[in-house]
Write a structure and sequence with these properties.
Number of domains: 2
Radius of gyration: 17 Å
Helix content: 40-55%
CATH topology of the largest domain: Protocatechuate 4,5-dioxygenase, Chain A
Number of helices: 9
Shape: flat
Structural class: mainly alpha
Number of strands: 0
Oligomer: single chain
Largest sheet: none
Distance between the termini: 47 Å
Strand content: under 5%
CATH class of the largest domain: Mainly Alpha
CATH architecture of the largest domain: Orthogonal Bundle
Length: 131
Amino acid sequence: MALEKPYADVPGTTIFDSDQARKGYHLSCFCMTLMKAENRDRFHANERAYLDEWPMTEEQKQAVLARDYNQMIWLGGNIYFLAKLFASDGKSFQYAAASMTGMSQEEYANMMLNGGRSPDGQPNEGVKNRG
């Protein structure tokens, strides 16, 4: 019997819980290998061949190849493990977050500097430069 998850219905959010962790286990393992330079080199030399060494689903592999971070999260990826992937591509956390929102990195940075998003997902214009 599946556990009831009262937290599971947060609009626009994939909750990372134990079920997601299990679903993305091999995706996370793959990402962690990218901490070593020799693995990053092997991955970038032939991404598909490297991914095929892992028992991930085809959908997970396609998400990695497309660098579709939202899809990777939906398929069990944890953003902190996925950070190894975008870092191996020379991309920042800010770049990845911006791409996940459909914004440019500059638009995303400006939105965050101006208070982020409200709970309904809209840019929050009410808070300016909290620093």
